[in-house]
Design goal:
Order of helices and strands: HHHHHH
Helix content: over 70%
Transmembrane segments: 6-27, 68-93
Number of strands: 0
Strand content: under 5%
Mean pLDDT: 78
Structural class: mainly alpha
Number of domains: 1
Number of helices: 6
Shape: flat
Distance between the termini: 30 Å
Domain Phosphatidic acid phosphatase type 2/haloperoxidase: 9-120
Protein name: Putative lipid phosphate phosphatase PPAPDC3
Radius of gyration: 17 Å
Organism: Fulmarus glacialis (Northern fulmar)
Low-confidence stretches: none
InterPro entries: PAP2/HPO, PAP2/HPO_sf
């Protein structure tokens, strides 16, 4: 059976991903920066809210997830290297297919790392939440 801390560890990346989707979509709507090629977005792009380029959402989520796994899983050095390479490939593949400028991807990596830090900073275990509620 999963312990409370294990459950907390499983929930936190999903909370971080939802936070990322909302923040990136908001920033993209504010910046309204188009990708390098003037391609009209398709129906799927509208459904996934992937119509603007800055910041790159795929890059922010890849950076956030890789940082989460690097912090919370005990991985051998080759797996750690592969995880970082995976995140870099996700981000730079968006440049190669013409959806983002390099600065969009780099800013996506930075936003993903900052969001990871924010979730790690404010995330409390279930035991801590119960203790705070009982004090009140």
């Amino acid at each position: 059976s999963a312990s409370v801390s294990d459950l907390s560890l499983l929930i936190s990346p999903f909370v971080a991903l939802l936070l990322d989707i909302m923040i990136v979509a908001g920033l993209q709507k504010l910046a309204k920066r188009k990708g390098p090629y003037d391609i009209n977005p398709g129906l799927l792009d509208y459904l996934t809210m992937d119509t603007y380029a800055f910041p790159a959402g795929h890059a922010s989520r890849a950076a956030m997830l890789s940082k989460f796994f690097l912090n919370h899983l005990v991985l051998a050095i080759p797996l750690r290297i592969l995880l970082v390479l995976w995140a870099l490939c996700v981000g730079f593949s968006r440049v190669m297919i013409g959806r983002h400028h390099i600065t969009d991807v780099l800013s996506g990596f930075v936003f993903g790392y900052l969001q990871f830090r924010l979730v790690e900073l404010i995330w409390m275990s279930s035991n801590t939440c119960q203790m705070l509620i009982s004090i009140w």
